[in-house]
Specification:
Helix content is 43%, strand content 17%. The chain has 236 residues and is α/β, with parallel strands linked by helices. It is globular, with a radius of gyration of 17 Å. Helix 4 links the parallel strand 5 and strand 6. Strands 3-2-1-4-5-6-9 form a seven-stranded parallel sheet, sandwiched between helices. The protein has a two-stranded parallel sheet with strand order 7-8. It has a single domain, classed as NAD(P)-binding Rossmann-like Domain (Rossmann fold, 3-Layer(aba) Sandwich), CATH 3.40.50.720. Helix 2 packs across helix 7, helix 3 runs parallel beside helix 4 and helix 7 crosses helix 8.
Length: 236
């Protein structure tokens, strides 16, 4: 990482802050954990999920897993308490969870978590949505992601960061057939226009960390696919 980033990370680290991560077992969440483990900008990072998992490699003693029932989040406010920064990488697919399940995970869980986080003192909330997010769209995926963005902007976080990646490039442990097919057909486009139609999940995780330590008054901060690429390239 650049010397400028290292200086900012050092200054941020000295603030002694705590963060939480939702969706830390997903592909972007895993990369976020790796980046936070490497850069050590927080005194403590709470990993909030439905169950405890084996973390390989071990991110270190600053990371603690807490189990919650997302359908009863109001009973688990303790998991969010003390965190000044929150990261949300939650997400599923309609194919895996069905229409109702997708809406519940990608919208309801995200917004309920944000509400609880805000009420317990979270100042900076970062979320991953989608490049196509639009609350007025007729397409379910696009509409739900857009509704999340709109609702979060109404919550008045001191700092809100929205990351809007396009096609995510990674070696998934979970097979997503349609995504694999789509990315196969997009290979020529990705090759000639790498910053437009796709982004590595490692870039998304890294960009979230860079944004965290970067000062500025803009709120919300919205990063499209090309800007996620740029943020990572500028701070190498």
């Amino acid at each position: 990482m650049s010397e400028e980033f290292q200086d900012r990370a050092k200054q941020y680290r000295e603030m002694g802050k705590t963060a939480f991560i939702l969706g830390y077992t997903g592909e972007c969440g895993k990369e976020l954990v790796k980046s936070l483990s490497k850069n050590k900008i927080f005194n403590k990072v709470v990993l909030i999920g439905r169950r405890k998992v084996d973390l390989t490699p071990d991110p270190g003693p600053a990371f603690e897993q807490k189990v919650v029932d997302f359908d009863k989040l109001e009973e688990y406010t303790e998991a969010f308490q003390g965190a000044q920064v929150g990261y949300c990488c939650l997400g599923t697919t309609k194919g895996k969870a069905g229409k109702r399940g997708f809406i519940k995970v990608d919208r309801d869980y995200v917004l309920k978590s944000a509400e609880i986080a805000k009420s317990t003192g979270c100042q900076h909330f970062s979320v991953i949505t989608a490049s196509t997010a639009n609350k007025d769209s007729m397409l379910l995926y696009v509409k739900i992601k857009g509704e999340v963005e709109h609702s979060l902007t109404q919550m008045a976080f001191d700092k809100l960061s929205i990351f809007k990646p396009a096609g995510l490039l990674c070696d998934r442990t979970e097979r997503r057939i349609m995504e694999k097919v789509a990315l196969t057909f997009m290979k020529p486009w990705i090759y000639f226009f790498p910053t437009i139609g796709s982004v590595p999940t490692s870039y998304v995780g890294t960009a979230m960390v860079i944004d965290t330590v970067t000062p500025g008054e803009e709120n919300p901060r919205i990063y499209n696919n090309a800007q996620i690429h740029s943020l990572c390239q500028q701070n190498k």
